[in-house]
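Quick question, first post here. What does this chain look like in 3D?
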Amino acid sequence: MSLDAPPVGRLAPSPTGAQHLGNARTYILAWLSIRSRGGRVVLRIEDIDSPRVKPWAVQQAVDDLAWLGLDWDEGPDIGGQHAPYIQTQRIDRYRVVLDRLREQDLLYPCACTRKDIEEAASAPHESQDGPVYPDTCAGWNAGDPLPEAGQFCWRFRSRRQRVSFVDRVVGPQSKIPHAVLGDFPVTRKTGDAAYQLAVVADDIAMGITEVCRGDDLLPSTFRQIDLFEALGHPLPQFVHVPLVVGSDGRRLAKRHGDTRLSYFRERGARPEAIVGWALWSAGLLQSWQPIQPQEFVESFTLDAIASEKTIVTVAEYQKIIDASF
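> Answer (accepted):
Ran it through. Tokens below.
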């Protein structure tokens, strides 16, 4: 992409449940980052984790985003040149990408169970997905017999050299992926693509040039950089924004009360109240006030986003509903 070309970003809800306040803030920031520079927004439904997907959550995610005042240039509801925009409808495309990686001898079959990995003495470090894989099956070479069908996944041989990048919010990042994250699955035991491969394949196919998401996904970036480079594609810019957490410092969940956007909608909350809360809590507004996303496009800058996680309380839920700022 030319340095002067408008950016292309994506809103990528996962329909494993209802969208909540924390999701909303990340989507609003991602949307503003692109629209403030005259860019295009793609809506993509990341339902590749099919066992956890709730069928009702797909349409609800689309409805929630539109209710917030966000729009997009391509997506499952309006179509576009990169359709389909639902991951479970893109399975054949992922198989092509898997074949490319296998041809480079970057994948190997792994029949290890999670228990096998957890019990391995050589797996003392923890990644966000559990213990670092101890290379049990990494000695496999092309032409060696495959394990029994349905009993193995394909793992990517992660880089043993240092990988560095500069995040637009978090700043410089550097790790040796193999040492701290380990080789990672790019398929499930069913043979279907896993999350890391699907998102990279989609970002490449859809021309995504900026990835904005919560900072809990920062470790995934190193794995995805490995995949982007193995597939010979320029890296997008990465933007990891702080999470919204409950009063106990943990990510939002049922224990923190009802933070679903649908809950606020049902109780008559105005979307402008949630947008105003999102911008205020991110350090972009000096005071909490109702505002529409389009009204803030010209004022938005990533440089002003607060670096600390945001604690949201039950009292603030009620303020959103009452619009009492």
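The first strand starts at residue 8 and ends at 11.
The chain has two domains: 8-89+242-322, 91-195.
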